[in-house]
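Protocol step 4 of 6: record predicted structures for both targets in the notebook before any analysis. Target 1:
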Amino acid sequence: MIVLTIRALGLLVTWVMCAANHRPFDFQAWDGYFYLGMADYGYGGFDPSVTYDLQGEYFPYAPMAFFPGYPLVVRLLGLPFGGHLLAVALTVSLAASIAAGYGVARLAQHAGAGRRGQLAAVALTAGAPMSVVYSLPYPEALLVALAAWTLVAILEQRWILAGLGAAAAGLTSPMAGPLIPVVMAAGLVHLFRARTHRIAAAVAVVVAPLGMLGYLLWVSLASGVPGGYFGITERGWGNRVDFGVTTARWVLDMLTTSREVFPVLTAVVIVAVVIATVRTRMPWPVWLYTAGSVALVVAHSGIIHDRVRLLLSAFPLLIVAAIRLSRRRGRTTAFVVGGVVLAGLWFGAYSLAVWPSSI
């Protein structure tokens, strides 16, 4: 119920913000166009006017920068419904948001949260900045659901589920990259330390990377672009690993010279998340996944304004914050959580209506 309420409120805030700025509220904006297009006719057949590189030249392999897991689910579920893919995509995103909420609550329970802490964790995750994409044809809701339940499976030593979850996440988004070595490392630790469920742990170690590795191999063979997937994202978006140099320079510039609200808030969020990751204690698999997600966001160059959306993968930080808030008086917890959620929903609405390049 919490997830549904926040999603409905988020759509209302976004609609009001779009109306105030005389912008159409388009579920298919930006990357949503690509994911729906992939669900409809795969990686081929896109309008040449939208498949271009940084220099504005035609680049037919640009859609391969988008992983196939989410559009594949939409396509399969859309077959019985006569091809109404937008409705199916939105339903998939909503269902994944609900599944993510339950996974977050279970993770919070493993971290020692009571009922209040679990509910606060679900609310903060559902209303995080840029959570508006959980209501759009984007893969973030599915990714968070898979990551949350995979981490739960690791903590509960349900190794087959952990391996399958990591493999599915690896087909869904490049942001699943940190989840895969975490499953493999946890499985190897179990193999060395435990005497039971060793076969299941070994299977998880082998299965976890198959989804992402399989897709990267296919892109390399199908496109012939030097560097495969990484060559495509560098030519199309300027993405390359520079160990955070570009991000650090941009954050410093925004915090010292920018007169615009959204870039400054984006810079503040990036800095806050990095500090919180360093200072926060979690079970080591959860912390390693979170730190890897933050590092993956910070360490590459390219577009900066979408970093808050990518940081949704670092949702365990919100679980820790929720647990700390739940130790205070009930009214204080409700007031702070409610305020943070409203601020997060405003942030997402602002990004669509006023600063649309952020998603």
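Target 2:
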Amino acid sequence: MRIDNQKIKQLNDQALPDHRESFDHLSKVLNKKNIDVNRAVEKLKEFQVAIPSWALGTGGTRFGRFSGGGEPRSLEEKIGDVGLLHQLSQSAGAISLHIPWDIPEDVEAIKSLAASHNLLFDAVNSNTFQDQPDQELSYKFGSLCHVDKAVRQQAIDHNLEVIKYGDALGSKSLTVWLADGSSFPGQLNFKKAFQRTLDSLQQIYAGMPSDWKMFVEYKPYEPNFYSTVIQDWGSSHMLADKLGDRAYSLVDLGHHLPNTNIEQIVATLMMVGKLGGFHFNDSKYGDDDVTVGSLKPYQLFLIFNELVDGMEDPSSNNPYPAWMIDASHNLKDPLEDLLQSLEAIRVAYAQALLVDRKALEEARENNDPTLAQEILQGAYRTDVRPLLAEARLQAEGALDPVAAFRALNVRKELIAARGEKTVSTGL
């Protein structure tokens, strides 16, 4: 379905007086601090986050999955749902496909449909952590690291096939996440597994178009619980460094052991020009994959503080990172959850844009941790939501996307079109 833009405008008109009051007040406060409000709004309008095709339906755990109504049953319907998110938020301008869950049968028709929603195709994602029904060999004991060369070749060929689909759609990057590892001591030769993984990735890297990037994702545990081959940012960086200039580390916020200093990882990878992208989510215990910013909003701000510092550093050679949400919507409406995540990401980005970097650096050089904390928390405690709303308003989005989603009965309309008992493809 598509939302009538006039209906969004009508909702905006109702909320416009309150928005103008809030935005004008914030503008005055920021102007006194010599912060260019218009520049911040323009940057927010430019900031786009990819939505993964697998995140548009209800998630679940190994204990169960409680599907909601009106879930997208096909790639076409998934593109339609991302189009809805982008129409409301004006910040979800790309979709990231997972192969083989979402193989485009008619590439030109899919490209045309995405373009009609003003969507681009972000990184494509391979899958060697599941066995598919028509798969000859099993990944039970690994894929790119497997002791059997035939299994490794099967996984390599799959990644090369994913690249072909992505290239046809206009994507420019491949994300590789491996479940490879071991659950018991002695099960795996760590050195051989890492070397085999590197050898396999080198073959995939050689098969990429010359203008493509590879993002190497890492994870300390799960589904294997004793070891994973690419367990942390160091091992990911080692692989990316050995692969070449077009290989980078990818940071998933849930893929760290408790209390890991993710913002320091971000700063270090950007310093050496090897931060490729981000998968956003939030967690309390592990890879919980819950709504971005729902549990650790200050950590998210600190991460964006380092991201903005790196992106605005003229001496940095790090490419502009790829942004994507990677969450599981077990209880909430998936589209509402994604709208909340988009808001949280942009809030943290906007807050980071307000940091007085000159004053912060002076505090650091003077060994003044108290002042440094005051500067950071001053930006973090600023309610920047009027900036986000203004950016959406100027881009013809909704002032309040979640409220608009509910007022327009979007889920009810989707259920009417697709049915009460639909299950989205993927997990």
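Step 5 preliminary note on target 2. Residues 157 and 168 are 17 Å apart (CA to CA). The radius of gyration is 22 Å.
Proceed to step 6 after PI sign-off.
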